[in-house]
Structures are given as structure tokens and as C-alpha cells.
């Protein structure tokens, strides 16, 4: 159990993991917790960003090609790595991001083909200062993989045009 989740919230999360469409009343029946407690626990966890509900889309729709990308900065203490993670976190074409201790940023990009992915990566490279190196390894998601939808423009994403506008608007 994580440090920020108490046992009652974990009971609720377990029920949601089993059935994401379960009602508060059904959670109450299965756990013995009061309806209002369940509601308060979920709302509190959401406001603290400990719990989130979201929409996922199949990679069969948006593309199964992936690129594992490492961004290395000249200055290891640069705030550009944090800026990059913030921007990557809002992009529908980025499945995951993380930063390691030396300030490098890793991201998993996805798209219909390598050319599309390269266009997205280039859009990010064009706005981030202090980049020393970008390395890329390609692969693919398995069929029917699901990825989170992060903004409403998931199907309108045009990496050769729209991404640059979207990214620049978030600076």
C-alpha cells in the first residue's frame, strides 16, 4: 500500500479495478463502507491527484508503432527537463514520460508509422533549448493495447502541422 492511500481507499480502488463502472452503492455493499465515505474518499483522492479516471483509446485506431526516446540536456541541472516533461504529459502521442536522476527525460511516443513519430519528436526538439542528444529505439505495441487520451484533439493530431502549434501554445 502506498504512503498516501489508507486501507479504506485501497478497498475502494480494488473494487474500481475489478469493475471501473461499479456504483458507489455496490462498492458499499461489497466493502461494508458507507456510501458518503466512499464518495468523500474518491473526491479527496481525486483532488490530491492520487486517483484519476480517464478515457483510453485502442492503438488499433491511433497507431501501434512506438519509439522509446531519451532526451539528454547539456546542463544536467537545467529546468528544461521539467518543461519538457510537462509538455510531453499533455500530448496524446506520448504514452509515458519519466526523468532519471541525471536529468535525462525518457518518453514513449506512438503513431501510425515511424515518419509520423519522427514528426512529433521533431516538434518537441524544435522548442526545447539546451538539448545535447536525442536517441530513439523503435518497436510496437501489441494489438488492442490501450493508451490514455490526454486532450480532446486525439483524432485531429497532425504531427507535421498541428503538434507544433499545440506545443508552442503551451509554452
Description:
The chain is elongated and about 55 Å long. A hairpin with a 5-residue loop joins strand 3 (94-99) and strand 4 (105-111). A four-stranded antiparallel β-sheet has the order 3-4-2-5, covered by helices on one side. Strands 1-6 form a two-stranded antiparallel ribbon. The protein contains seven helices and six strands; from the N terminus they run H-H-H-E-H-E-H-E-E-H-E-E-H. The chain has helices at 7-18, 24-31, 35-47, 59-62, 80-89, 114-125, 162-169; strands at residues 56-58, 65-73, 94-99, 105-111, 131-140, 146-148. The chain is 39% helix and 22% strand. The chain is an alpha+beta fold and 171 residues long.
Helix content: 25-40%
Q: Count of helices?
A: 7
What is the beta-strand fraction? 15-25%
**Count the strands?**
6
* String of helices and strands: HHHEHEHEEHEEH
Largest sheet, in brief, is:
4 strands, antiparallel
**Strand order in the sheet with the most strands:** 3-4-2-5
Give the overall form. elongated
Rounded average pLDDT: 85
Termini separation comes to 37 Å
Radius of gyration: 19 Å
Low-confidence stretches: none
- Structural class comes to alpha+beta
Describe the SSE topology.
Layout lengths: L6 H12 L5 H8 L3 H13 L8 E3 H4 L2 E9 L6 H10 L4 E6 L5 E7 L2 H12 L5 E10 L5 E3 L13 H8 L2
Antiparallel strand pairs: 1-6, 2-4, 2-5, 3-4
Question: What would the keywords be for this entry?
Answer:
four-stranded antiparallel β-sheet, elongated, two-stranded antiparallel sheet, 171 residues, single chain, 7 helices, alpha+beta, 39% helix
Please provide a brief summary of the model.
With 171 residues, the protein is α+β, with helices and mostly antiparallel strands.
